[in-house]
Design brief:
By secondary structure, the chain is α+β, with helices and mostly antiparallel strands. It has helices spanning about 10-40, 45-65, 75-95, 110-115, 120-140, 145-155, 160-240, 245-280, 285-300, 320-335, 365-370, 385-395, 420-425; strands at about 280-285, 305-310, 315-320, 340-350, 350-360, 400-405, 410-420. The chain contains 13 helices and seven strands. The longest helix is centred in the middle third of the chain and has 79 residues, at about 160-240. The relative contact order is 0.07.
């Protein structure tokens, strides 16, 4: 069987919690030992008991040092720590009454921990060992005659010391299981959720990389036909200069071809000078105004309303080409869904700035909103489905979030939230 590794953070946290459990149980056992020696005058092999405790104190110190090492903690190693607990408990129980010792029910704690964080085969093996040790202590142990006689001869209606000891051990075990074991299981679930999210992000990044690779090849291939079309359009414009309407249409085509060529050139330039682009900074208000003006040149037919915070000073952010393109994609999606117009609002505080784009289209379904950024999806018949994925990836790279939800009246709202510290120019 392949060796399984805990995620490093979860394994360290759980081993640290196990060490805390040991310290708590050790403290309870030490208090019980002092009580037995000072007040009950029980005849125990105190030298052996204390020697065993000292050995396990040294073991716990080694575990503490091990927590500072970066080595991954495997399932077998964690099982070994629980086995040490069972061995130490069995020795102490053998020296202090065997199965009649109230602390015998503590065998349930390592079993519960194993059930929460270890594979079932390890849990069954640990449970079998605990049962074997418990059974052994039923017949082989150093008895506590003074305690037995004290309970039997007291004649009181109150619970005896043995019963009270069992109650106290149940209380300690219940508290340990309720708090620490639940925390251990929650840590593993949290790590599993992070691992799942990591896999989803990797899958999305692979899709984006595939699109980027194909886009680079396509950009290279488009250069030649665009130049050919540009030459043909120019020749047609020269030949049909007398036809004003046709000349106007050809001028529009020539302008669009020039825009495509510029876009391809920017695509190459961004690959080489992205670090230089990141170094530039601009006030947020100026960034939004420039971006909106640039977008309105592309979509002049769309009516847009812009609302911005009335703060006295706008925060300064670092320019990022991918962020600009992500916002343009979001604006285009809103415009496609709402040709009658869109609303854009920008707000900021001391730590974040938020962009909201509202359209007046048919809205979105809950299922589509949940899939945002998780894969290539589209609601448009002629859409490629990569705009949302690219926007989500670009904004996530800047430690931001994207939310898409229906507006309470009509349409949908796309909300982008970005932390200012991640974008501030330093």
């Amino acid at each position: 069987m392949a060796q399984q590794f805990f995620p490093l953070a979860a394994s360290q946290q759980n081993l640290r919690r196990l060490l805390i459990v040991r310290i708590i149980v050790f403290a309870c056992q030490l208090v019980a030992l002092l009580y037995a020696y000072l007040f009950l005058s029980l005849e125990l092999n105190y030298l052996m008991i204390l020697s065993t405790m000292v050995i396990f104190i040294l073991i716990n110190f080694v575990v503490f040092l091990r927590l500072n090492k970066p080595w991954p903690i495997t399932d077998p190693e964690f099982l070994g720590h629980l086995l040490l607990d069972i061995v130490g408990l069995s020795i102490l129980l053998y020296l202090s009454g065997g199965a009649s010792n109230p602390f015998v029910s503590y065998y349930l704690v390592p079993i519960t921990i194993a059930a929460a964080i270890l594979p079932w085969s390890y849990t069954w093996a640990l449970a079998a060992l605990c049962l074997l040790c418990y059974s052994f202590l039923l017949f082989f142990y150093m008895p506590l005659p003074a305690l037995m006689a004290m309970d039997m001869g007291s004649g009181s209606m109150l619970p005896g010391l043995h019963v009270m000891g069992m109650w106290f051990n149940f209380l300690v075990s219940a508290l340990l299981i309720t708090y620490f074991v639940v925390k251990m299981a929650a840590t593993l679930r949290e790590q599993q959720d992070k691992l799942t999210q990591y896999r989803e992000d990797n899958l999305r990044d692979e899709q984006i990389l595939a699109v980027a690779t194909q886009a680079a090849g396509t950009a290279h291939e488009l250069g030649t036909p665009l130049n050919t079309v540009a030459v043909l359009v120019k020749e047609m414009a020269d030949e049909q200069s007398a036809d004003s309407e046709l000349s106007r249409q050809l001028a529009i085509i020539e302008q669009q071809i020039k825009r495509c060529k510029n876009s391809l050139k920017e695509l190459v330039n961004q690959a080489d000078f992205r670090e230089a682009e990141k170094a530039k900074s601009l006030p947020l208000q100026d960034f939004i105004n420039v971006l909106i003006n640039q977008w309105q040149l592309i979509r002049p037919e769309i009516t847009m309303t812009l609302k911005m915070s009335d703060a006295e000073s706008s925060p300064v952010i670092s320019l990022d080409v991918t962020l600009q393109q992500a916002i343009i994609n979001i604006l285009n999606n809103a415009a496609d869904a709402s040709p009658q117009g869109i609303e854009v609002s920008v707000e900021w505080d001391s730590s974040n700035w938020t962009l909201k784009v509202r359209d007046y289209g048919e809205g979105i379904t809950d299922e589509f909103a949940e899939q945002l950024g998780s894969g290539i999806i589209t609601t448009k018949e002629d859409g490629l489905g990569v705009g949302l994925v690219l926007s989500q990836a670009s904004i996530n790279r800047l430690k931001g979030t994207v939310k898409l939800y229906p507006h309470k009246e009509k349409g949908a709202v796309t909300e982008v939230c970005l932390p200012l510290p991640a974008l501030n120019h330093e």
